Structure formats: C-alpha cells, structure tokens
Amino acid sequence: MQTVNIVWFKRDLRITDHAPLFDALSSERPTILLYIFEPSLLNNLHYSERHWRFVWQSIECMNETLAHHGHQVSVMQGEALECFQEIQSKYQIDTVYSYQEIGLNCTFERDRLLKGWFDAQGIAWQESQQGAVLRGLANRENWDKNWSLVMRSQILKPQMCSEHLHTLDSKQVDHAFIPPKSWTSLSSGMQTGGSKLAWLTLHDFFNRRGKDYYRSLSSPITSRNACTRLSPYLAWGNISLREVYQELLQHWNVPGFRRSLIALSSRLHWHCHFIQKFESECEMEFRCTNTAYEALLSQSCNTNPNHLLAWKTGNTGFPLVDACMRCLHHTGYINFRMRAMLVSFLTHHMNMDWREGVTHLAQLFLDFEPGIHYSQFQMQAGVTGINTIRIYNPIKQAQEHDSEGEFVKKWVPELEQVPTPLIFEPWKMTSMEAAMYQVEQDSPYLDPIFDLNERAREARERLWSWKKRIDVKNEGARILARHVRQTNKRATS
C-alpha cells in the first residue's frame, strides 16, 4: 500500500505562500492535494451557493497551475472523517498538512473528531498558523509585534514537482464530487474566485484605483471601485494577507498613495485582530461577547417577523437600507460603513437580537469570514460593552455618502424618478408629487415600517442605560484584559 501525505485545503485555496503545501512537498513523499465539500457545511445556515461557486472557481484556478505538472486538486464530497477513512483504505496516510481553521463550531467539532481518528490510525496532523492568529492566546501582550514579524517574514514558495504529487482517480473514489451546473458558470454581479483574479485585483488597486481609497471607502458608490475588493480573495485564501501586506510595502513611497496605504495597512491589521478575538472567544458564535447583555436582550428585544422579512428582502421603506440589502443579494458586496448600518438598523432601530440577522448576512457576504463576521456584528450591535455605541441614521448616511441618490436609484428603481432631496425621505412627498414621480400609492417608501426618529430615541436610552450597568462594566474589564493590549484599553473603552 502506497504511503502518501495529504494537504487538506479549507479556506486557503492557493498555491503560493502556503505553509502546509510547502512543508508537505519538502518531505518529498507523494502528496495528495485534497478539498472536501462537506454536507455539514454545504447545508450550514451561514453559507449559500455563492460561496461554493467561489470555492469551485478557486479550485479550478489552482488546477490551471497544477495542470503544468500533470495533476489537480482531488475533490471529494462527504463528511471529512468518511473521506479520510476512504483514502486510508486505499493508501497509508503518513501526515495530513493543513492550516489551523478559525471557523464555526461545527468545524471545530469536526476537527476534534478527526484528531481522535488520526491519533488512533497513527496519522500525524501538522497544522500551520493561520496568518498572525495565535491559538490558545490568553492576552494581547506582544501581539502587534508578532503580527509585524509574521507579515514581514519570507513568502513561502512551494516547489511544485510532478513526482511529488499524486491525484486520486475519481472513478475509483466512492466520495467523488461533480459540481452542480450552477457552480460552473459565472454569476452576474459577483466577483469570481481564484488566485489569478486576486492578483489582478490587487495590481489594479495599486496601479489605478487605490489613490482615492482613503477618501472614498465610506461611500456605497465610490467604494466599489476605490476599495481593494480583495475581501473574498482573503476570506477564501486565494491570496495570503502577507502577500498583500508586502505588496503594500513595495508601493509605500509611490507618490499620492501614502494616505491610502496607511488606511489600508490599518485594515489589514484589524483583519487579524478580529479573527484573533473570535479564536480566543469562539463562544461568541452563540452568545454575546459581554455575557451581561444576554439577560438584557431576552428582556427587551422584540422580534417582529414582518419587519425582519422586510429587512432581509430590502423592503423596509428606508431607501438606503433597502438599497444596501438588494445590492448584497445581487453582488455579495457592500462597503464596511453600509454593513455597519444594516446591523445597526436591525439591532437598534428594529430592536432585535443580533442573532436574528447574523446568518442572513453571512449568506449574502461573499467574503464571509466567521471571525470577522461575529466580532464585527456584535460590535455594531452594541453588545460588547467596550466599544462606542453607534446608531447609524440611514437618512443622514444617504445624504452624506450618496448625496445625489445614485446608489439608491440603482438598487431601488421604484424611486428612480424621485429627485434629491426627496429621495432621502420619500414619505414626505405629497400625493401629487408621488404620482408625478411614478411612486405607487402602496409603496413602502410612502409609509415605512416605523418612525425612525422615535426608534432611534428609544435605542439611545436603552443602549446607554445598559452600558452604565455594573455587570456590563465588569464583563467589559474582562474583555479588555483578554482582547486588547494595555496601551489601547483606554482608547477602546
């Protein structure tokens, strides 16, 4: 029976700067490159077809490189344990190489199960550190220094060699995978997966789009061009954060780019910061980071199914909220400020538990990354007790960041004929104006689901009274000690 190594790809779908691949190929043992489509993830409420299409596109991009060596990624469908058991029945697995996965609870439980089976079979499992995220971290002392060290360290270049690769014969594999037809075609409006496009997007940012990044990232219109648009490629590992950071450093002295590169550098740092927060306290998938908020939410939140459906489908009657949600449905992307506004609207104006919307937005975000998603969602929902409370006013946000109504008109065509400034508050139109601008009499934009100012007032009173509670403050102190370095604690609180 042939002895092999396995590189198990998860959210690291690339060939370059890939520690598990580098280590496996360095052993000179025949290596199977493996991706598993697991039913427990395919059917998980955090994911939708757009994610798996992106994954499949990423694998096909990897195969273009591997084809030069006469091999490809071996793709299986089934629960991970079943697939590894089948491989073990045909080969002797020596070592499995993968990255540590900072994922959902279901992947953590899967890994615990696999570790027990690997140990029983005498199979070594070598997990590489994911970016600058440290497993088992108790506090943030020296974390920033480690981040800089990791991001500036040498980029790994796995030496691809045909005799060191091995591809499973799909005709002889019980758990072989054939993608649905809908995965094999491009989706209009969605970014396409793969390292090739990741690098093209990165180079386009530095060569053409990036100069206005720092002043354009808040607008739902200009951000679509001026932002890096790398988030899905980073989330699915088509390019490493280290590759992006070192490319940034190479452009540091390019005239006109400095302010944008400073802003981008900060966000690359935040990327690991929030994933580290989730890694250190993964229970936030199910509960508030600040546990004192659990009782407060259960006592005060009011789930209205009709309002929740209106939010999910983009029919609340508030133009910018609906435009953002509809844009997400179609493209999988909106900028950070608009994401924060959607969460704020759900949890503050609608007074709903953050858990009511957390999987819905995960399904829509093409760049869904569990660590960033949960950390950010709770921060914007105001249930950490350590962050500034922000209640985003969708009218003000539209006036400031979509001043001509361009974004709203694109995604809410019902308001296409409405001029500014009426488009920001269309319910203020007279019946004659509504008819003139072709707005239907039963339109939600003439009668939104609630009074925004009243809901904002109630939210301010509720949130600030909670934040002043001693139990919230005590939990806040614990959170600061664990997730924030000493020099930043005063600024964060």
Automatic annotation (TrEMBL):
Cofactor dependence: FAD; (6R)-5,10-methylene-5,6,7,8-tetrahydrofolate
Record PROSITE patterns: DNA_PHOTOLYASES_1_1, PHR_CRY_ALPHA_BETA
Mitochondrion keyword on record: no
Record text on cofactor binding: Binds 1 FAD per subunit.
Gene Ontology biological process terms in this record: nucleobase-containing compound metabolic process; response to light stimulus; response to stress
Gene Ontology molecular function terms on file: deoxyribodipyrimidine photo-lyase activity; DNA binding; FAD binding
Binding site for FAD: Y213
One Pfam family this sequence matches: FAD_binding_7
InterPro entries xrefs: Crypto/Photolyase_FAD-like_sf, Crypto/Photolyase_N_sf, Cryptochr/Photolyase_FAD-bd, Cryptochrome/DNA_photolyase_1, DNA_photolyase_1_CS_C, DNA_photolyase_N, Rossmann-like_a/b/a_fold
Positions of the Photolyase/cryptochrome alpha/beta domain: 3-133
Keywords tagged on the record: Chromophore, FAD, Flavoprotein
PANTHER family named among the record's database cross-references: CRYPTOCHROME, CRYPTOCHROME CIRCADIAN CLOCK 5 ISOFORM X1
UniProt similarity note: Belongs to the DNA photolyase family.
Protein name: FAD-binding protein
